Amino acid sequence: MAITSDIEKPRPKLIPWTEKLSQVPWWALIIILIGVLVVYFIFTSPTYEDAFFFLIAGVRLTIQVSLISFGTALVIGLITGLGRVSKNVIFYTISSLYVEVVRGIPILVMLIYFAFVVTPLTLQFLQWLGTAMLQNLAIDPLMGLANTLANIKIQDVDMTVRAITGLAFCYGAFEAEVFRGGIQSIERGQMEAARSLGMSYFQAMRYVILPQAIKRILPPLGNDFIAMLKDSSLISVLAVRELTHLGKLNRARTFRTFETWNTVAFLYLIITLTLSILVKYIERRMAFEE
Amino acid sequence: MKSSIVHNEGSPQNVEPPSMDDDIIIIDHVYKSFGKTKALVDVSLRVKKTEVCFIFGPSGGGKSTLLRCINHLESPDSGRIIVDGIPVSHSKTNIDLVRAEVGIVFQLFNLFPHLTVLGNVTLAQEKVRKRSKEEAEQIAMELLERVGIPEKANAFPGQLSGGQKQRVAIARSLAMNPKIMLFDEPTSALDAEMIKEVLDVMLDLAKEGMTMLVVSHEMGFAKAAADRMVFLADGIIIEEASPKDLFANPKEERTKAFIDQILY
After folding, report:
1. Which pLDDT value is given to residue A236?
2. Residue with the larger pLDDT of the pair B139 and A7
3. Which H helix or E strand runs over B223?
4. How are beta strands B37-48 and B23-34 bridged, if at all?
5. Beta-carbon-side half-sphere exposure of residue B169 (alpha carbons within 13 Å)
6. Which of A62, A101, A112, B42 is 20 to 30 A from A30, alpha carbon to alpha carbon?
7. Quick check: A26 pLDDT over 90?
8. CB within 8 A of B36, min separation 6: which ones?
9. Are B70 and B45 in contact (CB under 8 A)?
10. Are B224 and B65 in contact (CB under 8 A)?
């Protein structure tokens, strides 16, 4: 008794306003201050201004690549996540194999592998298939397709496309685990109730389990999107003209190392902070509803 | 109800062929174990149409497992279960057919928290029975009226009391027009003052001629509504009798001891 009452009673402050001072989000103020400083430079210093307008095209591509990759990763993740909780041995095995393999390989290696091994091999296979069709088949409607396939050139597939495929493939494995966790966090009784009403496994997933699971995994999905946006800087090794790659180019063009990378970092920070405010908002709304 | 008890621990050669006309549930020498725990040991039970069968016994005795086997939430290790002439088996079509005929009400309600009360009652109607939204909602409102909470149609389960939740769960099952209703300790998770509102709904159902299997400790309900009481312990049906006989002079020592324990 005595112990608890000691803890509960707040100690009187000697100087009352220091309490309020410690509650101010100083970190946010410091970021805003730096932001204002960089903006000031952009509008006053010609080198910053130059760097900014050179880099802004990269911001657009970075966001585009991230959105498309993440959308694809969500689809892959949902399907694989369903596989991870499936009782179907084949579906489960394929899903688990994919998740375990991809999670064990660094994203950078995976991206290079996708761009220079998987894509060429796939295209070669399609070429071979097209040629084989041309030689052995004589069905008219398929000839057009066969011709296209036979004439595919590896250079035809843009590096941006390869990068997006690679990123989506990597993040699909992470999202699969998020989906699996979300599905498994829903009480067993929900599935039982749905099945006992005569719904099929698929219907129960679609109308009962997933709507609840997705609500719960929205915050982690948001965080993963931010992580992917940052990892999209890795595709600069494939010479995709996103923000980081344009940073390299700008430095090579102007030899202004400090100004270039200050601006690059500042631009990334603006995007990620905006997104994390959004995620926090979603998180708070979820907490309120539950 | 004179010949409602058929072969329990009887010899296998006496097994009657399943009769379609009267027995709506036939449970025939069913075994089920979870690891080393034997949940059901050679359980045989027949339930007639419109009969209210009250199953009671100590916890862990296999009561819930028996109910869950009937609509195949658990699959028996051996033995057969025939519901309304359909053998409940591993075949997918059979399971879905049976589940459409059998409603189950759970101890913890298992309402869908992301849907309104109305959504809970209409979802399976639309997806399984393929009713239109209007028709499903009309049926849902009639049922909510019947269980006494039409005003909560647009509330979410999180805003309801336990008793209200359980009544919604009953309405949700009834919306599928089941021939049989299973109740798995429907009042065990409720506060004392809410038990009556749920039992009242169940009593009405029994009066209307619904075939019911009720697992519960509510002896008052058994006296009021049950045609037959089944005492299940350690996975074995120890005794079956009408409530009158069972309360007045239980044949088995174990039954007597259990009843003495739970009644003041």
Report:
1. 94
2. B139
3. helix B219-225
4. antiparallel
5. 33
6. A62
7. no
8. none
9. no
10. no
Mean pLDDT score of chain A, rounded to an integer? 89
Minimal C-alpha gap between B184 and chain A (Å): 12
How confident is the model over B205-236, as pLDDT tens digits? Answer: 999 999 999 999 999 999 999 999 999 999 99
Instruction: Name the one residue in this structure whose structure tokens are 């409530």.
Output: B243
Burial class, B240, CB count within 10 angstroms (exposed 0-12 / middle 13-18 / buried 19+)? buried
DSSP 3-state of B82: strand
The pLDDT, as a whole number, for residue B15 is 46
Of A42, A76, A66, A88, nearest in space to A201 by CA:
A88
Q: Provide the pLDDT for residue B104.
A: 95
Provide the H-helix boundaries in chain A: 2-8, 17-23, 26-44, 46-84, 89-103, 107-113, 119-136, 140-150, 159-185, 188-196, 201-204, 210-231, 243-254, 257-289
Residue B5, φ and ψ in degrees, nearest 5 = -90, 115
Query: What distance in Å separates the CA atoms of residue B185 and residue B63, rounded to the nearest whole number?
Result: 9
Distance from chain centroid for Cα B130: 25
- Is some CB atom of chain B closer than 8 A to the CB atom of A45? no
Interface of A with B in 170-189 (CB under 8 A): 187, 189
Nearest C-alpha in A relative to B122:
A197
Under a CB-based contact definition with an 8 Å cutoff, are residues B258 and B233 in contact?
Answer: yes
Q: b/e per residue, B171-184, with b = 16+ CB within 10 A?
A: bbbbbbebbbbbbb
| B102, B110, B176 ranked by CB distance to A189: nearest | B110
B128 and A198 within 8 Å at the Cβ level: the answer is: yes
How much of chain B exceeds pLDDT 70, in percent?
90
Which ranges in A104-209 belong to alpha helices (H)? 107-113, 119-136, 140-150, 159-185, 188-196, 201-204
This prediction has a pTM of 0.85
Residue of B nearest to A196 (CA): B99
**Across residues A78-83, what is the average pLDDT?**
97
Distance separating the N- and C-terminal Cα atoms of chain B: 29
Amino acid at A23: Q
